[in-house]
TrEMBL record:
Keywords: Membrane, Signal, Transmembrane, Transmembrane helix. This is DUF3592 domain-containing protein. Residues 1-21 form the signal peptide. The chain crosses the membrane at residues 123-143.
């Protein structure tokens, strides 16, 4: 009877496990809290591309939709962002798809507030907080030994 019950429970839990992946509405990149929709059909001439302004640092999660920092749901980590000469960064940026090949990404909206909170509590924040904590702890130990 115990074996039957165990097999039944295994069947129930395995039958209900589903894996879903998001289907993104469009390719995007995030730069400094702004989401830009990539327009693959709009290439940018090399002489219209200005200085580097950032790069993809994280990938958007295909299962939860979460992303933080300078992220993309399509481009690899390290893909660089550039300003477009004569265009404000808050309107559009250029994405380097290959060496000396660029496409336009148009501003869509600011990053949702939930993702901004994730940015605050990112890995770098915790690393700096931990370092500060240990420095204070070290100072306290030194002061207590001198007394």
């Amino acid at each position: 009877m115990k074996k039957v019950l165990a097999l039944f429970l295994i069947f129930v839990f395995s039958a209900n496990s589903k894996v879903n992946a998001l289907e993104w509405a469009y390719w995007f990149v995030v730069h400094e809290g702004k989401v830009y929709e990539v327009k693959e059909e709009e290439s940018i001439a090399t002489n219209d591309v200005g200085k580097v302004i950032g790069k993809v640092e994280t990938r958007a999660d295909d299962y939860t939709g979460d992303y933080y920092g300078n992220a993309s749901n399509y481009y690899k980590i390290g893909t660089r962002y550039f300003e477009i000469n004569g265009v404000l960064i808050k309107e559009a940026i250029a994405i380097e798809t290959r060496p000396n090949e660029y496409v336009k990404a148009i501003y869509k909206h600011d990053v949702p507030i939930g993702n901004k909170i994730i940015n605050i509590f990112s890995f770098n924040f915790w690393m700096i907080s931990g370092l500060v904590f240990f420095v204070f702890l070290f100072i306290i130990v030194l002061i207590s030994r001198q007394r």
